[in-house]
UniProtKB/TrEMBL annotation, chain A:
Pfam families: Acyl-CoA_dh_1, Acyl-CoA_dh_N. This is Acyl-CoA dehydrogenase. Residues 9-116 form the Acyl-CoA dehydrogenase/oxidase N-terminal domain. PANTHER family: ACYL-COA DEHYDROGENASE, ACYL-COA DEHYDROGENASE FADE28. It comes from the Bacteria. One of its GO terms (molecular function) is acyl-CoA dehydrogenase activity. Transmembrane segments: none annotated. The keyword Flavoprotein applies.
UniProtKB/TrEMBL annotation, chain B:
Residues 26-127 form the Acyl-CoA dehydrogenase/oxidase N-terminal domain. This is Acyl-CoA dehydrogenase. Belongs to the acyl-CoA dehydrogenase family. One of its GO terms (molecular function) is flavin adenine dinucleotide binding.
Length: 376, 406
């Protein structure tokens, strides 16, 4: 226990130092508003620290530290709006690990873990979470499969060397791995609400694909990816909210109106107090959800859904509050407040909406209760 | 009952395969609980006597006060064991100690009391032989507690060294049953930081003490007003130094809050399971709006569990409970209200029945809880004062009084 706490503290501090130096507001703004889509150099430095391999076991070149640590790291990345594809890459790693496909795992995990390749999930998107991409068809070909069609919105696709594609094969859902660098894959950049997590449309024209999961394993493997994505997205949201709160508190303590610091007015200070309560609560739920991914139980799905719902919503509320506390300053392009609001708001609808996650969690809890009652 | 693992580390049941055997105290506690199993009597007075008997036996068996140091009559258990202890007690539906307030004064006595005071008070307190009430709030001192004006004047005469106490306390829970009151009284001039306030232990059977019950929002009388008219209190009943009582009350409150969550945690878990059950039974859970509320309540009960463990961990390491404790106080206050808000929504049309109506679902417990939980954002610091505390003490924002006045 103490060692885990110690490792987490060290990791947060090391990451905090690196990001303070390499990923300040000016850097993020320049990158987000410029032609470059993500921070390749930062990713390389994070890879040198072992970050992309935190959830990957040592036999595939990873650190084997689990989601508890990966979530802590993601929170630090969120704090600095780091434009790196950690969430998407981890989701694909989770799918590779859940599939039990040792050949594909051996082929991709070491490269994902070393930071050489990043990955993205190309799936259909619904309010309830990821689904099959409707417009992609998989056909059998000599020596494997070929994919054709388009996925309209894919996060982190521009950076990706590997795509996890959810598509129909012979009428059944399946998961495929596509080398994004091959001929026939086209990535078209989209204008994103949150430019620190770039979006693109993906077109595939008869590209070779390896099948990671057929329809028997589809749900389990896809769920593993979605849960990993939700937990990291939620952890990221905690970092986004925590930093937005710090900015709001800092400003409230220095900005003076009516002859006093505005943070001495309870309308402001109580808003800030509510931010702290929400951030601390989210952090607690995300830590529990991450622990539950590392040590799965019948409660894992509920823990993940509740944590994601809470953290995603909290980040939107806190970043909105941060803009409000900053008044006119918060409405300017120059001030970083809007970048936090953008990252929070986009994250809310990136994988699944908070209210849908809550609905799913409550339904599962009640169903479990019915089940328990029948047992008695 | 739902098997929602609010506590991830389930206790170690003795099993094959070399699982660790439960520690000696746990074996004895289980035996004790098995031997004391039984249903609480219906009658209120009998129920109190039953709970007192249980806790006297518990103390006798050396199984009371898991977190207190052994020297103070406790068990000196580690955090994980304390959690396990409360789990055992909740699972066995053991009667709660009849006087929760005892556990606010007790840490104060352990930390700041004289050896004589510890010797005199702690054991009867644990056994529930003596019950305690808290005399802090006054008609003119609510959120601004340091404005209290109940006076204690020191006199030395042929009867010895005494205080003469005159004034009034209000919102005093259990005043009619308590043997003792731990009170904050004014012994010196008011000043910043609660100057001039002393912490005094007042016998409730002393001459000049009058208790007048106060009817509350639910229609019951859960607290009272207490009047003091020249009540003589031995100077030996002063805790800590004269005029330094404010700091003593504050530190012990902080620590008490942290540990109090521990036992609340399991109780809340059970109540939320009961609410989920109610929603499933009545069919209200089929309503997506109700499901949103249920999920929010479920998230809150998990936050409370996880934060209380964090806070307690810090307390046991000898540090301040930190933001987690302040956060939990506020979450808990509002959680109790939201929980009952949702419960009445789940009851639907039946929510019109009063808490004394015998045909009301579950004998009116949710309506009663709804009314009583209004106190959770008022008592022991209003939600507004708690937000001030978080803003100023945790976030470091400037005082709400403004810089010019302070």
């Amino acid at each position: 226990m103490t060692t885990t706490v110690g490792i987490e503290k060290d990791l947060r501090e090391a990451l905090g130092r690196l990001l303070a130096e390499r990923c300040d507001h000016e850097h993020v703004a320049a990158l987000a508003d410029g032609p470059q889509e993500w921070d390749r150099d930062l990713w390389a430095e994070l890879a040198a620290m072992g970050l992309p391999g935190l959830v990957v076991p040592p036999e595939h070149g990873g650190e084997g530290m689990g989601f508890a640590l990966a979530a802590a790291a993601q929170e630090e990345l969120g704090r600095r709006l780091a434009p790196v594809p950690a969430m998407s890459t981890t989701a694909v790693q989770a799918a590779l690990l859940a599939s039990g496909d040792s050949a594909e795992a051996a082929r991709w995990l070491p490269r994902l873990t070393s930071g050489e390749v990043t990955a993205a999930v190309a799936a259909g998107r619904t309010v309830d979470g990821w689904a099959m991409a409707d417009d992609v068809r998989a056909t059998r070909a000599p020596g494997g499969w070929r994919l054709s069609g388009r996925v309209p919105v894919v996060a982190d696709a521009a950076a990706a060397g590997l795509l996890l594609v959810a598509a129909g094969a012979d009428g059944d859902p399946a998961l495929f791995l596509v080398d994004a660098t091959v001929k026939g894959v086209r990535i078209d950049r989209l204008d994103a609400l949150d430019p620190t997590r770039p979006l693109a449309g993906v077109r595939m024209d008869g590209v070779p694909a390896g099948r990671l999961a057929g329809h028997e394993e589809f749900t389990e493997v896809f769920q593993a990816a979605e849960r990993a994505a939700l937990v990291l997205l939620a952890a990221d949201a905690v970092g986004v909210a925590a930093q937005a709160m710090d900015m709001a508190v800092e400003y409230a303590g220095t900005r003076r109106q009516f002859g006093r610091a505005i943070g001495s007015f309870q309308a402001i200070s109580h808003r800030c107090a509510d931010m702290l309560v929400a951030v601390e609560s989210s952090r607690a739920l995300v830590a529990a959800a991450a622990a539950s991914l590392d040590d799965p139980s019948e409660d894992t799905a509920v823990a993940v859904d509740l944590a994601a719902a809470h953290a995603l919503e909290t980040a939107v509320r806190v970043t909105g509050g941060c803009v409000q506390v900053h008044g006119g300053m918060g409405f300017t392009w120059e001030h970083p407040a809007h970048r936090y609001l953008r990252r929070a708001k986009a994250a809310e609808s990136l994988v699944a909406l908070p209210d849908r996650l809550r609905d799913r969690a409550a339904a599962a809890l009640v169903a479990r209760l019915d089940h328990d009652n029948e047992d008695n | 009952m739902a098997t929602v693992p609010a506590v991830p580390a389930e206790d170690a049941e003795p099993s094959s395969g070399g699982a660790p055997r439960p520690p000696e105290w746990r074996v004895r506690l289980r035996e004790f609980l098995a031997a004391h199993a039984g249903r609480p009597p219906q009658d209120k007075a009998e129920r109190l006597a039953w709970a007192r008997g249980f806790h006297a036996d518990l103390e006798e068996a050396g199984l009371a006060a898991p977190g207190w140091p052994v020297e103070a009559g406790g068990m000196g258990l580690e955090l994980a064991d304390q959690l396990a202890y409360h789990q055992e007690m909740t699972r066995a539906r053991a009667p709660k100690h009849p006087c929760g307030l005892s556990f606010i004064v007790a840490p104060t006595l352990i930390m700041h009391g004289t050896p004589e005071q510890r010797e005199r008070f702690l054991r009867p307190l644990l056994r529930a032989d003596e019950l305690w009430c808290q005399g802090f709030s006054e008609p003119g001192a609510g959120s601004d507690l340091t404005a209290l004006s109940t006076r204690a004047v020191r006199v030395q005469d042929s009867d010895g060294d005494h205080y003469l106490v005159t004034g009034q306390k209000v919102w005093t829970t259990m005043a009619d049953q308590a043997d003792w009151m731990f009170a904050l009284v004014r012994t010196g001039s008011p000043g910043p930081g609660g100057a001039g306030i002393s912490y005094l232990l007042i016998p409730m059977d002393a001459e000049g003490v009058t208790v007048r019950p106060l009817r509350d929002i639910s229609g019951g009388a859960h607290f009272a007003e207490v009047f003091f008219d020249g009540v003589r209190v031995p100077a030996a009943n002063l805790v800590g130094e004269e005029n330094k009582g404010w700091a003593i009350a504050r530190t012990s409150l902080g620590h008490e809050r942290a540990t109090a969550f521990l036992s609340d945690e399991f109780r809340y878990r059970r109540i939320v399971d009961e609410l989920l059950s109610l929603a499933a039974r009545t069919g209200a859970a089929a309503d997506p709006v109700v499901r949103q509320s249920l999920a929010r309540i479920e998230a809150s009960v998990r936050v409370l569990a996880s934060n209380s463990r964090r806070a307690l961990d810090l307390v046991l390491q000898g540090s301040d409970p930190g933001p987690a404790a302040s956060v939990n106080r506020l979450v808990k206050s509002e959680f109790e209200q939201e929980l009952h808000e949702v419960a009445l929504r789940v009851l639907g049309p039946d929510a019109v029945l009063g808490n004394r109506e015998r045909t009301a679902p579950e004998r009116g417990r949710w309506t009663y809880g709804y009314l009583m939980s209004r106190a959770s954002t008022i008592g022991a610091g209003t939600a507004e004062i708690q937000r001030n505390t978080i803003a100023e003490k945790v976030l470091g924002l400037p005082s709400h009084r403004g810089e010019t006045r302070s």
